[in-house]
Amino acid sequence: MIYLKSEKEIEQIKKPCRIVAELLCDLKKILKPGITTNYINEQAESIAQKKKAKLAFKGYRGFPESICTSVNEEVVHGIPSSRILKEGDIVGIDVGIVVDGYYGDGAVTAAVGRISPDIQMLMTATEKSLYLGIEQAKQGNRLSNISHAIQSHVELCGFSVVRDLVGHGIGKNLHEDPQIPNFGLPNQGPILKEGMVLAIEPMVAKGSWEVEILRNGWTVVTKDKSFSAHFEHTVAITSKGVKILTVCED
Q: For 49-60, what is each residue's pLDDT tens digit?
């Protein structure tokens, strides 16, 4: 069942979303060769504590750490560890925050030092596809128009949409209906309505879209070990159009 949020609830959801955005901005700044993904996790915990915010992922369905750090061929759900980042790596950082019972969710993929032009193209195409998908998140549209916009741009750029993972609704729960695939034909699925709050998150591979889960039971990687990028925003469909909630406001 898809839960429509009131204006008051959307105002509540804005609180964790803004912290998600600020945290992601802060974490991108610390990326450099020689640090570990554990260090990123520790910094996230420290920043969240200063903001008096609760990180949502730790313990969620048994996830062992506070954020997800997915490196290179890791698509999502990378577990922070002693892995040392090196020049040319890319890291997907996925953060969830809960404030007063409402959730916000967002992700970015960022470079560690200099990266190759083809990997930069992968990241740029993935981020652009997110915004093209968001443009379709408007009243009266069908849900799959978001999916189709993402897939069309990704494939035009020569990359592959990961098909085993989806975006989702969000609000009083981290994951709610509807599921939002990043591929599909247009004009299908539920009609988008005012009050829907969605976490839209293209996950894109440089090579094949096929993935597998590592033995840790969490980390999703590309089968062909090609690099992958992941960007995510939480958005609300309002009477004035779609509003991106996971942005820093002046």
A: 999 999 999 999
